[in-house]
Amino acid sequence: MPFDLTEDNRLVAETARRFAQDRLRPNAAHWDETHTFPRDVIREAADLGLAAIYTRDEFGGAGLSRLDAVLVFEELARGCITTAAFISIHNMATWMIDTYGSPQQRARWVPDLAAMRTMASYCLTEPNSGSDAAALRATARRHGEHYVLNGSKAFISGAGANDLYVVMVRTGEDGPRGISTVVVEKGTPGLSFGANERKMGWNAQPTATVIFEDCRIPVENRLWDEGTGFRIAMSGLDGGRLNIAATSLGGASDALDRAIAYGRERRAFGKAVVDFQATQFRLADMATELEASRALLYEAARRLDARDPEATRFCAMAKRFVTDAGFRVANDALQIHGGYGYLKDYEVERIVRDLRVNQILEGTNEIMRVIVARELLRA
Ligand SMILES: Cc1cc2nc3c(=O)[nH]c(=O)nc-3n(C[C@H](O)[C@H](O)[C@H](O)COP(=O)(O)OP(=O)(O)OC[C@H]3O[C@@H](n4cnc5c(N)ncnc54)[C@H](O)[C@@H]3O)c2cc1C
């Protein structure tokens, strides 16, 4: 752990570490294999303040920093990448409601979200718009004091299982200025869900399409003004990307530890696998990549905490760098395990599968480069 963390930062990380090691790590392989969504165990995270980490404390948030959140998700992912990512998305949606909601909206939704009596999904992607999110087509047409929603959202984490859906919909013109953010509660007539997607990883949480068919919600479910939805969605993602990067750092760190432990035991040509210089150089590169990742990630989190004007660029750089490095390191850890790495018994194959999606979601790593280049060339 870096030398410049405060005692409070370390305590937060230690709390997450104990929970991850006691409650997540022993079960992660079983949940993956049986496709179990461990709702009750995830709820225990709320008792530790991990359901609304960087949400203000007025309605039950923990009021901690983005740096604290990154430390938490790094530790949680050392136990189970999939549940860590689920908790991360819930935190992002909760923060969006608390930040952009009116006092009445915050009082209505945040206390239950912070206690995880309810859980929330973030709904931006559609079947025909992912990277080009501002092209979304799901509509919310105003009829008096209601909106009527039609359209669908694809790949939604927690869809069907969760209670609240923070949804970006078109209320006006084409492009980003015609988008608004609304909250849709499970059970609202006209809201339904597609089948659970069959995925390469993240098997311990559901992913499905969210469908709106003449789904009527009160206008008071809209966050902030009409036309601000794209800004809300993007500001949620700055922190979301740091959290996802942190799960890559934690998952890959776990893979490195497993590779060292295995390489010490496994023998070939009369010596331990870690005694080959090729293995040592690989381990050295893995550790170096993770430390460089950690430094960039913590720097991006500090900038977001400080509301630095360059925070968005740093969040995109960190997401791209750390999720690429994390996947490479996990894959190298699998290689050090030889054929056993390919078997489920040693769990590195699960880490590789679970980390792969981090290069794709919350903006693909190509889109992260688009953001970084745009900011560089803006001047
Ligand atoms: C398991 C999982 C969970 C998810 N959870 C959620 C969720 O909870 N909520 C949510 O809203 N979404 C979620 N997503 C969706 C995810 O954010 C999108 O898949 C992602 O943003 C990419 O969109 P796409 O799949 O439509 O790819 P596309 O946009 O079709 O991209 C295809 C390829 O083209 C590249 N590309 C596109 N545009 C450019 C460009 N301008 N320059 C260079 N390359 C480009 C992309 O990088 C990619 O390689 C999830 C996805 C997965 C797999």
What is this entry, summarized?
The protein has 379 residues and is an alpha+beta fold. 51% of the residues lie in helices and 15% in strands.
Bound molecules: flavin-adenine dinucleotide
CATH class of the largest domain: Mainly Alpha
Give the class from helix and strand content and strand pairing: alpha+beta
Question: Judging from the principal axes of the Cα atoms, what is the shape?
Answer: globular
State the low-pLDDT regions, or none. none
Strand order of the largest sheet: 1-4-5-8
Q: Would you give the CATH topology of the largest domain?
A: Butyryl-CoA Dehydrogenase, subunit A, domain 3
The helix/strand order is HHHHHHEEEEEEEEHEEHHHH
The helix count comes to: 11
For the largest beta-sheet, the strand count, sense and barrel status come to: 4 strands, mixed
Strand elements, count: 10
Structure notes:
With 379 residues, the protein is of the alpha+beta class. The chain has three domains: 7-114, Acyl-CoA dehydrogenase/oxidase, N-terminal domain (Butyryl-Coa Dehydrogenase, subunit A, domain 1), CATH 1.10.540; 120-227, Butyryl-CoA Dehydrogenase, subunit A, domain 2 (Beta Barrel), CATH 2.40.110.10; 230-378, Up-down Bundle (Butyryl-CoA Dehydrogenase, subunit A, domain 3), CATH 1.20.140.10. Helix content is 51%, strand content 15%. The protein contains eleven helices and ten strands. It has a four-stranded mixed β-sheet. A hairpin with a 2-residue loop joins strand 9 (267-268) and strand 10. The longest helix has 37 residues, at 229-265. The mean pLDDT is 97. Bound molecules: flavin-adenine dinucleotide. Flavin-adenine dinucleotide is lined by residues 89, 121-125, 130-131, 155-157, 199, 202, 207, 357, 360-364, 366-367, 370.
